[in-house]
Amino acid sequence: MSLVLATTSGKGGTGKSTVSVSLALAFSKLNKKVLLMDMDEGLRSLDLFLSLDDRIVFDLSDVLKGADIEDAVYPVDKNENISLLPAPRSTGEIEPDAFKELLGRLVPLYDVVILDFPAGLDFYLYNVLPKDTQFITVCNPDPVSVRDAGIVCDLLPHTEKDPRLILNRFDIELIKNGTYKNIDDIIDASGLRLLGVVPNDSELMLLSVNHKLHPKKRAFKAATRIAKRLLGEKILLPKPKKI
Ligand SMILES: Nc1ncnc2c1ncn2[C@@H]1O[C@H](COP(=O)(O)OP(=O)(O)OP(=O)(O)O)[C@@H](O)[C@H]1O
Ligand SMILES: [Mg+2]
Q1: Phi then psi for 202, rounded to 5 degrees?
Q2: Contact residues of ligand 1, CB 6 A cut-off
């Protein structure tokens, strides 16, 4: 059965798109066929992350108006396991019922579908997602981002899977010097179950420029741990200094 993941966050810029693309890279290496759906209407970014921006002609709004799905699903160069369905260039183009029907046709074609949503409390499409959608809230270690993650998850529609937290931009030095709380305290403050921790890392900062992650480096390893957990494997969190 396909895995449907939906990113969300209260605060903007917490790293949802970076994490979505990292997860797609990790799943693809695990031989999973992945569809990334950019749900950030008017402010799409995944085409840049995946170096597809020059090729986009059709997007999600065209499919909803009757274009062939194949015309708007773009395979990533040199990675046959990842494809992108880009977001519309303007807002208000996604009609919920038509979107639900499209998801019903698309999801069974992939092992993993990742819907990368914008930040905030505009949930107008969340109610038409499949009942087994796994919401993933991405936060940074700062207290505002952590509190907002908890608020968003309290408001999400109920699905069969409880929302999970990814703590992004983790930096052990900022915990050691007392700037931020430790991981356990962040989990407690959010009230959410942790799915994984992603390091603050220049390779991730440059993902939209370089379009790839080195498989032996910590960013890819963090994404792989999360991908495997989502596939049901029991993968322990490494010691904080190894994240
Ligand atoms: N783990 C990380 N380490 C370093 N930089 C990161 C990391 N995650 C994200 N960034 C940087 O943070 C910025 C925001 O990332 P991104 O666009 O993925 O956030 P977002 O949550 O999708 O934003 P939006 O809410 O606008 O959709 C980008 O400049 C990105 O390079
Ligand atoms: Mg984004």
Answers
A1: -65, -25
A2: 9, 12-18, 40, 45, 118-119, 168-169, 198, 200-201, 204-205
Calpha distance 64→101 (Å, rounded) = 9
Ligand 1 atom, smallest distance to 11 CA:
25
**Secondary structure of residue 60 in the 3-state scheme:** helix
Which ligand 1 atom lies nearest to the CA of residue 13? 23
For residue 83, give the amino acid letter: S
Label residue 171 exposed, middle or buried (CB < 10 Å: 0-12, 13-18, 19+). middle
| Domain extents in the chain | 3-233
* Mean pLDDT, rounded, of the chain: 96
Q: Which residue has the tokens 């993933």?
A: 136
Q: How close is the Cα of 145 to the center of ligand 2, in Å?
A: 15
Q: What is the pLDDT of residues 194-230, one digit of tens each?
A: 999 999 999 999 999 999 999 999 999 999 999 999 9
Q: What is the dihedral of CA 13, 54, 227, 237, to 10 degrees?
A: -40
CA of 67 to the centre of ligand 2 (A): 25
CATH code of the domain made up of 3-233: 3.40.50.300
